[in-house]
Design brief:
Layout: H1 2-19, H2 23-60, H3 63-70, H4 72-78, H5 80-85, H6 89-100, H7 104-120, H8 130-140, H9 148-156, H10 166-187
Helix pairs in contact: 2-9, 3-6, 6-7, 7-8, 8-10
């Protein structure tokens, strides 16, 4: 469906571009934009490879497992079923750590692994459990101490001070994550 909507938008834009006599400018802008998109993709890919590699090394070295044991009590408040069963806590911690580093794209596969483990013991496979909902909310509105993706995007766009957004990002992400976690905790049990 989204492809059809996007296709319609492109067709309307091309029609009006030629209608207004700006077809050549539109074609030049499309080619320039495609080139900049490739440059941006390569920049972000390098950053993602670095942080995904760091996360993999930490996971293989057992640091994520130690972090899971250290955070077991705080996590048990928000993920009581996973903490009781011991399922998915390492992946939840890895997800949390990746989100702290601001690499949401690396955090999502870890969240999916945790969700798979939680789904294995889900008594109603057609309904998400409270822990699954909480993890989804935490993955969506996470605290980013090092918003590396935003910093890379700002640097690529030519920002003279790409780090000036860090403190507002800390405030916003902390408020969003706290509210999201509190709301999921308050609504736990009401969702069927």
């Amino acid at each position: 469906m989204l492809g059809k909507v996007f296709g319609a938008i492109v067709l309307v834009a091309v029609f009006f571009g030629f209608w207004n006599g700006t077809g050549e400018q539109m074609a030049s802008a499309a080619l320039d934009g495609a080139g900049r998109a490739i440059e941006l993709t390569l920049t972000l890919s390098g950053m993602m490879c670095l942080w995904c590699g760091v996360m993999r090394v930490l996971e293989e070295a057992g640091v994520i497992g130690k972090l899971a044991r250290l955070l077991r009590r705080p996590l048990a408040f928000f993920f009581p079923d996973a903490a009781a069963r011991g399922e998915g806590l390492e992946e939840i911690c890895a997800n949390f750590a990746a989100n702290l580093l601001g690499i949401g794209n690396a955090a999502t596969p870890m969240a999916l692994r945790a969700l798979e483990k939680m789904q294995a013991s889900n008594p109603d496979p057609d309904t998400a459990t409270g822990d699954m909902i909480t993890l989804t909310v935490l993955n969506t509105c996470s605290v980013a101490l090092i918003p590396s993706t935003i910093l890379a995007l700002r640097r690529q766009a030519g920002a003279t001070r790409p780090f000036e957004v860090v403190v507002p990002i800390w405030i916003c992400s902390f408020v969003c994550a706290t509210l999201g976690l509190l709301i999921t905790r308050l609504l736990r049990g009401r969702v069927k």
